[in-house]
């Protein structure tokens, strides 16, 4: 398989994620779409690592996974805090996050 | 070779279907489940790219732990259905157009590159390529500093999540006080640090 297929697939996944981030209003789903974007980037990194035959790209992908996990933890913490304060779970109404 | 191509197209179709499901399904709970399917398909693609350790990590960490966290939060706050096409908001209306434009641009960029000339991945992959041994050796030798930074980032995220989501008594009052205190500290940087520490302890 040519790596161009994998890179094209990662571009498609990334763009679906971008569309979701822009369209959806539930912050949970926005976080899910961010995961989609990060996964698209991961796929491109791993296919380039395969192309070069070195493991460096895979280390990058592993670090991206760690960053994604941190983002999920903090984002979900924010959503739970919003829920506890009885704020609307809607990104349009959260135009100013000042603590 | 043929088997590999069939597997690629099956996994790619699964990944795209999962991604579209995340965006299109209205109930957040089913969105999370669609993302799990997407992640499993991606793990299959990682295996095709001979990233065995990453495929396993994707399944265990992502599709296992992170998605369980999502499901817990969806169950906690209650996944309310939302209308998919909002009435107002120029961003929401222009979002699909922007995504399509980005996809077009990326397609042109990938198609215009010399990637397509590489018909198959070169056979330069060492026997242990992508194995846990190679990843571990790289992490502890060449990429030691990113590894340590990642561990530190995980620690910071864990502490931040506990601070953000802990249950406080008198949440609204404490939150309002905290906000005003932070604002005061930002506005008056000349304030002695001991006051800030004391107020932090009082919270």
How does this model look, in words?
The complex is a heterodimer of chains A (99) and B (203). Chain A is mostly helical. Chain A has a single domain (3-84), classed as Helix Hairpins, CATH 1.10.287. Chain A has helices spanning 3-23, 27-52, 56-84. Chain B has helices spanning 2-24, 28-48, 52-77, 90-112, 132-140, 144-165, 171-187, 193-202. In chain B, helix 1 runs antiparallel to helix 2 (28-48) and helix 2 (28-48) runs antiparallel to helix 3. In chain B, 19% of the residues are buried. The chains are: A mainly alpha (99), B mainly alpha (203). At the A-B interface, helix 1, helix 2 and helix 3 of A face helix 1, helix 2, helix 3, helix 4 and helix 5 of B.
Give a short summary of the structure.
Chain A has 99 residues and is mainly alpha-helical. Chain A is built from three helices and no strands.
Q: Count the strands of chain A?
A: 0
The oligomerization state is heterodimer
The whole-number mean of residue pLDDT values of chain A reads 87
Determine the number of helices of chain B (DSSP H or I, runs of at least 4 residues): 8
**DSSP helix fraction of chain B:** over 70%
Task: Outline the biggest β-sheet of chain B.
Answer: none
Q: CATH fold name of the domain at 1-80 and 131-148 in chain B, please? A: Four Helix Bundle (Hemerythrin (Met), subunit A)
End-to-end separation of chain B: 63 Å
């Amino acid at each position: 398989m040519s790596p161009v297929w994998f890179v094209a697939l990662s571009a498609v996944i990334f763009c679906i994620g971008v569309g979701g981030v822009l369209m959806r209003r539930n912050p949970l789903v926005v976080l899910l779409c961010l995961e989609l974007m990060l996964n698209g980037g991961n796929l491109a990194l791993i296919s380039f690592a395969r192309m070069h035959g070195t493991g460096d790209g895979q280390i990058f992908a592993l670090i991206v996974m760690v960053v994604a996990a941190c983002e999920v933890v903090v984002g979900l913490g924010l959503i739970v805090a919003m829920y506890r304060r009885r704020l609307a779970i809607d990104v349009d109404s959260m135009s100013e996050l000042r603590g | 070779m043929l088997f590999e191509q069939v597997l690629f197209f099956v996994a790619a179709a699964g990944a795209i279907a999962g991604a579209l499901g995340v965006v299109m399904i209205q109930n957040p709970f089913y969105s999370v489940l669609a993302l799990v399917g997407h992640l499993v398909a991606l793990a299959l693609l990682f295996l095709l790219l001979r990233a065995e350790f990453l495929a396993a990590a994707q399944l265990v960490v992502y599709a296992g732990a992170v998605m369980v966290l999502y499901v817990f939060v969806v169950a906690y706050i209650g996944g309310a259905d939302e209308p998919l096409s909002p009435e107002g908001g120029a961003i929401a209306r222009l979002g699909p157009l922007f995504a399509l434009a980005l996809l077009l641009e990326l397609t042109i960029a990938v198609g215009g590159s010399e990637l397509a000339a590489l018909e198959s991945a070169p056979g330069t992959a060492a026997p242990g390529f992508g194995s846990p041994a190679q990843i571990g050796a790289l992490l502890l030798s060449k990429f030691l500093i990113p590894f340590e930074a990642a561990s530190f980032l995980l620690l910071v995220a864990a502490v931040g999540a506990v601070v953000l989501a802990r249950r406080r008594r008198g949440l609204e009052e404490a939150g309002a006080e905290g906000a005003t205190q932070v604002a005061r500290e930002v506005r008056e940087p000349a304030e002695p640090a001991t006051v800030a520490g004391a107020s932090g302890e009082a919270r």
